[in-house]
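Retro notes
What went well: the complex prediction finally ran end to end.
Inputs used:
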Amino acid sequence: MVSRPAARFAHLAGLVLVFAFAMFPFYWMVSSSFKDQGDLLASPPMWLFEPTIKHYAEIWADQKVTAAIVNSLIVAVSTTALAVLLGTPAAYALARFEFRGKSDLWFWFISNRMISPIVLALPVYLLAQSLGLLDTHLVLILIYLTFNLPIVVWICTDQFRSIPPELEQAARLEGAKQFDVFWRIYLPLGLPGVAVSAIFSFIFSWNELLYALVLTRRNVQTAPVAATSFMSGYELPWGKIMATGTVIVLPVTIFALIVSRHMIRGLTMGATK
Amino acid sequence: MSVEGQALAQEAARARPARRRRLEHGRWTPLFFLAPAVVTLLAIGLYPMLFALVTSFRRYNLTRAREGFPFVGFENYGRVLSDQTFWDTLLLTGRFFLTVMPIQVALGLLIALMLHRPGWGFMRSLARVSLVVPLATTYAVVGLLGNLIFNRNFGVANQFLSWFGFAPFDWLGNPSGAFAAIVIMDVWQWTPFCALIFLSGLSMVPIDIEEAARLETKSHWALLRHVQLPYLLPGLTAMLILRSADVLKLFDMIFTMTRGGPGTATELISIYIQRVGFRVFDLGAASAQAMLLLLFTILLSRLYIRIFYREIE
């Protein structure tokens, strides 16, 4: 049997190891983005080096990267706004009304979480092509709704259920219309849930690659596609790739830290809390 | 029952029928709130799927568009089902799942137990928060990062190997190395998912039961087996189903890291379908494959719903 101080120390060592394991690739990406190309290609790799912000200056000057980040922002913000706009009323109905087929509808929303993007990417490509929608923001904004809308509906339904129905009764007694009840009671009081679902929707859209790869060409390339496109040629611009990677990952990491308490709920559609 | 309690109960009894009347809604009200979301999801989700279903019954090769896209019945399905590569990629996808899942479950459980154990409060919160970072990292960037980490000449993975006295290894240049590399990156990204689910399971064990058990036994194993395990099982089921759906979806990280190569060593099902559809342009066959994939997914999600949302049904 291990003595208590030894066990305590092993616990600390384990925790430090967990932290190092989780953070290492992230650390490696960020530190590589500050390395000179010569230092990047050093073998064995260098842990101490003279940092340079050259690669950030490079991507700042590179219109392809800045345009891609703007595209990603446009797509992620619009699809999130649409998902909230369309999803919150549906969540209200699912939270408060009784009607036939309710559970089927609910399950249909949820099962969208499981569908592989490749299943939709093929037909959407053909449809977008025939409608002239390839390489537009619109097609990405719409297709991202297939996974954002369910997440907004799920999290907001859960949130709206926790609002006391007495408030609705009181408002209805005073003659409030159904829509006013939703707009003035449920939306403001459920704001935390709405915000969490919006952040998730933003993260998922920002991180998406497959649809963006298939459905866009030059004009609306998103940030992950742009970063991927540097992976060709003989000598890869590692510093630039890692700097772009850092710029892509940093904002979503901050968002994820904000919703870290809800991370698992968001990823499991609430099956575990 | 106290007087107060009786009064409350009476009030509640009076309030109940009234409440039902007041919350009544018009027959079409739910429709009004639901229609926007439902119509949108039908248009962008279901309609393309039906389109894919139709395409899967046609000869639909974009490189031979001049021949038109005639209906050919089950020809595509026949071709796909007798296509050895399709079965190989499915098998590889299964092998990938069976490799990453046990590692993620074991490591995840270990991490959760460490995070649950009292002591070292600050370091524990730091470690818990750091778990969110892999989960949020853009999947495509994980693949790019994997390319750098596992580089044959200047990758840090080979440096780690050299510390333990192993010779440098051309990870991405040979089939088993590339497979190991995508396994390691997936384990990095998704072990936190398992750890956090297990952690929430552990924190549901009523504190007095856990403390009583700790007084009874000094064995961590007995505590885990008899007290904590029942609270961990639902989470385990959830992660098994969700992770298998995720592995069927897995595309971004592998595409940016190995493009399915070398050869077809890391060509999981989504990568293969993407290649048939968008590099060979045989959309008929790719659609048939996608439909088969969809079938698996529907079975998985029915299973998930059956297990986890019983109370709503």
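What we learned: Residues 29-43+50-268 of chain A form a domain with the MetI-like fold fold (CATH 1.10.3720.10).
What to try next: split runs per interface for comparison.
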